[in-house]
Amino acid sequence: MNPIPxxxxxxxxxxxxxxxxxxQSDFLTQGPRIKExxxxxxxxxxxxxxxxxxxxxxxxxLCALALEVKPGQKVITTPNTFAASANCIQYxxxxxxxxxxxxxxxxLDIQKVKDLxxxxxxxxxQGIIPVDFAGYPVNLEAFxxxxxxxxxxxxxxxxxxxxxHFIDSKGTKQHCGNGKFADLAIFSFHPVKHIACGEGxxxxxNNKQLYEQLLILRTHGITKSSDLLEENHGGWYYEMQMLxxxxxxxxxxxxxxxxxxxxxxxxxxxxxxxxxxxxxxFAGTVVKTLSNPSSIAHAYHLYVIQVxxxxxxxxxxxxxxxxxxxxxxxxxxxxxxxxxxWKKGDLPQAESYYExxxxxxxxxxxxxxxxxxxxxxxxxxxx
Length: 383
Description:
The chain has helices at 13-23, 32-45, 56-66, 84-91, 110-118, 140-149, 208-217, 251-261, 264-282, 310-319, 335-339, 348-356, 368-382, and strands at 4-5, 49-53, 74-77, 95-98, 125-129, 153-157, 165-167, 173-175, 184-188, 201-205, 222-223, 239-240, 288-289, 296-297, 303-306, 322-323, 357-360. By secondary structure, the chain is an alpha/beta fold. Strands 2-10-9-6-5-3-4 form a seven-stranded mixed β-sheet, with helices on both faces. A three-stranded antiparallel β-sheet has the order 8-7-14, with no helix packed on it. A three-stranded antiparallel β-sheet has the order 13-15-17. β5, α6 (140-149) and β6 (153-157) form a beta-alpha-beta unit. α1 packs antiparallel against α8 (251-261) and α3 crosses α4. It is globular, with a radius of gyration of 21 Å.
């Protein structure tokens, strides 16, 4: 059997033709396909505005800039994420404070966040960055209530969760990234994500002021919009009104993203079918799987199990050319954050999760035969 990765992109003939069309057009960088992608994506997640950028990390950094994170300001996030979720605050001179995870969801534990807020003077913290880890939608309605009580903003890191949703207290379906409860949300279009652009990211929001600021920040802080200019010398004129970055995406990438978005629902359905088969195979065994309550619709960027002897299972599966992965090494235990004072023992739930977690192959083109082989190898080892 061919090697089985934990995740991979799915490129169709339609995707290729979309990219060829962009290459044959008048625009390779900043052209009409970017706006087309933004509008289609905003519609997909039910948000009012979307801003396409170079990658998910750029999206996070721009959000922190738009929310005016300043040196010394404290922001709460989860340790169970990729480093970028925390680093975006450090880029602005802010201070990341990690709160532990909920062992039932592997996402940021709202009670731990409450404990931090209640044990500090009001005004100590400026914001919260919950992460829809593995595609599990965080209950942002509850986080919004907490944020409003303490006058905090929310950035939803939804990189793993396009197509996911949770049911709010009124029985309404709330799509990840729809801007109902978070000030800003971000997505990634890395090849192993649901929608692949090679590299790329998206910011969604319902706040027009933040939207307009993001458009300028992603392009060096420069605008040519006549209604925003302080002066106007002619058709060539532009102004740099703030310190921004070159965080733009290209028309070529956007054309691929738009094409991939057209079959996003198909991909989600396949991911959920794969997850269901895993769930059924591991039920009643020593392999721990994540609970999936009816109040959420998991997007399944990852399918994570927990086992006692993770390192041995990892080695066994890779020897069978099943290239599983670990998500994530707790961010607070990375050398950079250790130097800032974080240490082992600070966040016991995240640390325990890390010692046992393993991400199994999860992508729409995983065949039934491949998945069955993975299941057999995991169960054989577990026995």
